[in-house]
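Example (one chain per record):
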Amino acid sequence: MSLSDKGAKEGEAIQIKPQELRIRLRPNSVQKLKVEFRQAVDYPIDLYYLMDLSNSMADDKAKLAMLGNKLAAEMKTITTNFRLGFGSFVDKTVAPYVNSHPDKFSTERVSGNLIGTVELQVEVSGMIRGYYDKLGGIIAPNDERCHLDKKGYYTMSSELDYPSLSQINKQIRDHKINMIFAVTSDQVFLYDKLSKRLAGSSTGKLESDSSNVVDLVRQQYDKITSAVEMTDDVDETNIRLSYYSSCLGYHKYQLHEDLVKFYRQFTLPEPVTFEVNLEYAFCPQEASERRRTFHIFPVGLHDQLTIHLEMMCECDCEKPENGEAFSPKCSGGNGTFECGICNCNAQRYGKECECDASDTDPFLEVKGCFNGDDSRPCSGLGKCRCGRCFCDPRANPDEKIYGKYCECNNYSCDKKDGKICSGPDHGVCDCGDCKCMKGWKGEDCSCRDSIESCMGPNGEICSGNGHCDCGACVCSSEEQEYFGTYCHDCATCPGMCGELRDCVECFITYQKNPARNCSACASLTIWPIEKIEVREKEKLCSFEDEMKCRFTFKYAFDQDNQLLVWTKMVKECPEPVDLIAIVSGVSGGVVATGLFLLMLWKLLTVIHDRREWAKFEKERLMAKWNQGQNPLYKEVETTYQNPAYGGTAKSMEFTE
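Predicted structure:
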């Protein structure tokens, strides 16, 4: 039938579809059902207002009488098919709950409209106020019957205990009731707790004089009708119903947490859809128990989906004459092998009847397959059966997954050169960690557990300049940075030039003369280069051979402290001596030197003479002489007169 709105009577409106299903299902198979629900417009409502008529509620009773018409008018805005009832109650009429003095009864009026289901609500209200039946000596369990006399009085109040919460829940489900607890603010917290234990119930805050009762009823009604809670009456653990719903505007179904089957905040007349997964774990032994009828329904409404389940537990091949009872194929006789599968005996389940239901709940068994906070059963690498993990096989037969939760394997360990744990001769992988063989260590078992390879030429471990790790020297860099296979080299150390000289020279010669034997240097790798450029941590070496030819090479150590050598393949030899050129050069040099010295002497002599002459001229010019006659000066001409000469005087004179 299609969804429909109001009808003349309650139940004529169709709010859920489908309304009836017949399902044939095999054990451990899941049948998905689509259940559509829509809140009917103008759906009939019966509002029964139940009130405590103790003396403390006198003002509330008067206020309700004043607001009765308003409450009815407000409810008619919700639906035209509305009925309003009123009931009252007091506590059990035995001490200490009431004052039994005759004068107290004369003024009390009691409604005669109490019905069986409402009587249970009355009893609950009395219980929640905190009165305990032990004080009145009433210990007989409530029998869930009405017990009203012709005048409407409850006759078993002083004989039967208050109903339990489970009894109230049963009546709520059977009679499709929604309960609203209207209590004062100091009681809201307590009744909130109670409403969580009662299906379809809610709590509202009532003013001390009940003046807000109309608004409270309307608010709580809107709250109830804005959410739908789907439930069922399945009362056995073999049948399991899982509920999913899709929110408005979304098409993805979500499983309700803790199987609380709610759909909130839908709007009329929008339909909402629930997806229900139906399954059962095993077939009952009795054929009469293989047909079940149960209902799925919204809490507080009479609409329901009736499901007739037929458990498919037999095929032609399942007939007794065709089955192998207590078959060894079914975990050593724990079931009957028929139709290619195991039909398990009582209290056994699983593909091969390997699980014992007396030890493990079929629906809770998966809990034993979770490893701590891991949200995946069996770590996502296995299947959970009987509360135990059965790990998945690997395509590679050498690879295994194992462990209680399939958390271990033998293939996810560290690798070296593509080999797990550096190969089977170095170690084996166990639960993600390498277990190294003797003589090996490290995360991937690639390190030698020995110091022999770290012994330097001087007999010390790493030449005393480092420590041995993984069969190799780790050089110290505190005082001075050392490097080399045995930490024997540093920036200021003499180095290995002398040790490498013969091998490098042999390598250069071998390229030109392959007949030369260089087998002693076979462990040394030398790289030829055209030009040598020395970088950081590289050392330059240069030597002359017997022909005075120079060859140059360099060496360094890589990150693994392996020695690397590079050399120029061409020796640098001196040119042949040219004697003629040397003699000519020397002779020319001597002559040139002599001429140069002669010219230099001449130049110096001239310079000296000129300086002396200049000095003389200067002294001469500066000299001052007297005007007297030099006594040593003698005139050029001297005249002598001979006194004995008698001639004239003039003729007797001569001049020298």
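Caption: Confidence is low (pLDDT under 50) at residues 100-135, 248-252, 255-261.
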